[in-house]
Amino acid sequence: MDIRHTQKNGCEVLTVSGSLTVKHAKALRESLLEAVRKAPAVEVNVEAIGDLDVTFAQVICSAHRMAADLNKQMTITGLEQERFSQLLGRFGFFRHIGCQENTRKSCLWLHDHETS
Amino acid sequence: MSDDNETFDLDVLREMFKSEAYELIGELENALLALEESPREKDVISRVFRALHTIKGSGGACGFDNISHFAHEVEGVYDAIRNDKMVVTREIINLTLAARDQIAALFDEVYKHTTAESEVTEQIINRFRSLLPQGAASRTKQPAEPAPTVQEPQATYRIRFRPARDIFLTGTNPQFLIDELRTLGTCRVVAQLGDIPPLEALDPELCYIYWDVILTTTKGVNAIKDVFIFIQDTSELTIEPIDIEGGLSEDDDYKKLGEILVERGDLSAADIEEISSEQKRIGELLVEKGLVNNDRVEAALTEQQHVRGLRKERQKSEELTSIRVQSDKLDKLVDLVGELVTVQARLTQVATEGTSALLLTIAEEVERLTAELRDNTMSIRMLPIGTIFNKFRRLVRDLSQSLGKGVDLFMEGAETELDKSVIEKLHDPLVHLIRNCIDHGIEMPDERQALGKARNGNIILSAAHSGAHVLIRIDDDGAGIDTEAIRRKGIERGMISADAELTEKELYALILAPGFSTAKQVTDVSGRGVGMDVVKQAIEALRGTIEITSTRGEGTTIILSLPLTLAIIDGFLTRIGNEHFVFPLSLVDECVELTAAQSHKMGDRDLLNVRGEIVPYIKLRERFAMEGERPSIEQVVIAKVDNVRVGFVVDHVVGGHQTVIKNLGKMYKGVEGVSGATILGNGSVALILDVPRLIKTVEREETKT
Fold it and tell me: Which of B40, B77, B115, B215 is deepest in the core (most CB within 10 A)?
């Protein structure tokens, strides 16, 4: 896994590539923790990742919660790719209603379609 | 639920299961007979296993613990066979057929109030246990054994799977388990994310997520448990059935969101009560008040949506397929339709005789609807004849084995439909005929071989429609009927004189006479001289006929001709003097006027020239010794029986008539040529003519003179 940090209009952008599985969960957490603490807004770009599992979703969800607690913004790009949306749908991440922290309707898992 | 309600539910469930129970027994028997022919066929082995497994499961659900236990013991052997620990042998088949009979006896005990011998159950169980290889006997106690892939009733389960926090560190990925669950059926998965802490507190190598899964499957609960078998000690797993196909308490709308959350243990009943008075969506309210988190509401909504969809689909498919109705209700319906047809005939008559055009229009409309109702009602009672044909496989197998003969049974036209009541009454006559075929017809294998025949004899049981009749044929390639032996026996029994010259047909007719038997030895199979007489009586009681043809050394054919229905037929109404007679419309070919120019006599036989064709005719007025004036122009109803046209002279032709058949009393049993009666619109009685019998009687009389 490789994580590249850049800034865009005051927003911390993390561009991730490679695999995002349990082996890399710790490193991802560290990077996200640093970014959320540092910047008012964080964008995670996963367009170039090859593989992901539920540990990735767990870390992302946790980071989003922290951002919401700190009244910061966090977005994710690249997850709309079918291979990811199928996988996340299969494991029950998509939501019609976001979690309690979703006060600004920014839940990362809000989704229209269901996978059965 | 109170005890009373539970007893009621069980009683209802048992009643609902009744017909299925006997179907399962039938299926088990058919599968076993198929297995005997293909002992290595995996599909057939699975078929036997499935039948046993369903008897076990459904029997258990209905509280038939003895049957469930018994089926379980038998199933054990088939499980070992499926897993290549045993092979199918003749002994296993015989023993399983005995087990099938015992299961039937156990069901009869409940449903028919007969007595089953419990020691037979024990004996069979012990024999099955002795057959099991070492180690296979305790199959249910081995948790590592894969779940049997059997078809159970479709059920929906609510599964909550909370993996151990360190599951990732043990090398197990919960994703694989969810994926495996998906292979069992239709799955809706909601990951519960509420326990995931903010990033500072998160250990990313631990699992904070748990899953709520709604799974609809036919594989049963054990298959679900097997998915989690390796992590069951460290993870939390709850599996609850929430919807079972054919379940009793099926509410189309399923549960309310609050009920689901309480059932899941996500919310207390008191919370629900408190909140229900507020005019707001319950999910929003619960979240607002912090009583439950969004994820759990999401999971409950998913469950609600899934089960509602499922029930709607099921309801739709059930509407399109079939329902089970007790047969006595159908009988009652047919009776009522019969009464309606009679009343309708009366209405039509009154309307025709009156002057009201409106009444006539209404009467015509009622007539049309009644005819449609009649046809639909009769079609409901139609069953494929295969339902009894299949039962004869076992008969042929057991009988041929006990006699040391080889017999192969072939069936054709099993899909041919016949009225339910005819089918029910046909079983015993067919048993007699097939027994006779095997006992008297088919030769011993060595004898057949010496004659250049295959060692195994063939019996072909076939059915086909022929107009308003169904023809059932039993063909065998056995020894054929020894006409000389019949003649000798006929003389011996004083049935014919020593110098009587009988046609083959007449000789065969002797076989059907009471007390006739040519068997050299009375066996427990047949040869008591009662069978064929009983067959004849039974077939005639069905308004059917029986015909025998045979070629010595080549085989025998018995043809039963049976009416499609015993209740209502399309008739053709005629009149002689003041009396009415009904011809079955299916036999009527045409009607012509009887003119002196076209009729002539040849000996005692009256003949009519119909467009160049010579047709013999019978004067019904004379035959029934009816007095009174003949009309100047008489009518001839030409009927066609066995491709032969015969005319019947009547005074007047009235026309088509829906004929509700009423049996004549015992007093009229001996009257030849009349098969029943019907009530006409004016309340008078018309006799239904037995046309084939009339023709035969006249033929017989002509031969004698």
Answer: B77
pLDDT, tens only, B626-655: 988 889 889 999 998 877 899 999 999 999
Smallest Cα–Cα separation from B484: which of B473, B492, B476? B492
Considering only residues B532 and B620, tell me which one the structure prediction assigns the higher pLDDT: B620
Task: Answer whether residue B142 shows pLDDT above 50.
Answer: no
- Supply the mean pLDDT for chain B: 83
Asked if residue A79 is part of any domain, the answer here is yes
CATH number of B3-141: 1.20.120.160
Percentage of chain B surpassing pLDDT 90? 26
Per-residue DSSP letter, B437: I
Q: Pull the structure tokens for residue B649.
A: 């002279």
Nearest CA among B590, B618, B621 for reference residue B693: B618
In a domain, A49, yes or no: yes
3-class DSSP state for residue B561?
strand
- Hey, of A99, A103, A115, which one would you mutate to test binding to chain B, going by the most B CBs within 10 A of its CB? A99
Q: What share of chain A is helix, strand, coil (3-state, %, to 5)?
A: 35, 30, 35
Q: Which CATH architecture has domain B384-563?
A: 2-Layer Sandwich (3.30)
Give the nearest chain A residue to B216 (CA atoms): A116
Residue B207: list chain A partners with CB under 8 A. Answer: 54-55, 58
CB contact under 8 A, A96 and B178: no
In this structure, what token pair is assigned to residue B303?
Answer: 């469950």
Mind listing the pLDDT tens digit for each residue in B70-88? 998 898 888 888 878 888 9
Helical axes B90-111 vs B65-82, angle rounded to 10° = 160
pLDDT of residue B647: 95
Q: B488: number of CA atoms within 13 Å, CB side?
A: 7
Query: Token pair for residue B438?
Result: 């095997």
Contact B175 A61 (CB under 8 A): no
Per the CB < 8 Å rule, is A91 touching B208? no
Give the closest-approach CA distance of A25 to chain B in angstroms.
Answer: 6
Q: From CA A33, how far away is CA B200, in angstroms rounded?
A: 7
Percentages helix, strand, coil for chain B (3-state, rounded to 5) are 45, 20, 30
d(CA B524, CA B659): 43
Q: Give the alpha-carbon dihedral of A99, A100, A106, A107, to 10 degrees.
A: -10
Please give the model's pTM, rounded to 2 decimal places.
0.53
Cβ-contact B681, B349 below 8 angstroms: yes
Fold of the B568-704 domain: OB fold (Dihydrolipoamide Acetyltransferase, E2P) (2.40.50)
A103: in domain:
no
The CA–CA distances, whole Å, from B13 to B62, B82, B331, B383, B384 equal 6, 31, 24, 25, 27
Residue A66 is assigned to a structural domain of this protein? yes
Residue B129: C-alpha distances to residues B90, B94, B119 (Å): 16, 15, 15
The pLDDT tens digits for B319-345 are 656 777 777 888 889 889 988 988 998
Name A47's Cβ contacts closer than 8 Å, sequence gap at least 6: A15, A77, A78, A81
pLDDT tens digits along B540-561:
778 788 889 999 999 999 999 8
Q: Which amino acid is at B397?
A: R
- The answer to whether residues A44 and A62 touch, using CB atoms and an 8 Å cutoff, is no
- When divided into structural domains, chain A yields a total of 1
The DSSP letter of residue B250 is -
Q: How far, rounded to the nearest angstrom, does the alpha carbon of residue B701 sit from its chain's CA centroid?
A: 43
Which among B316, B446, B330 is positioned nearest to B380, based on CA atoms?
A: B330
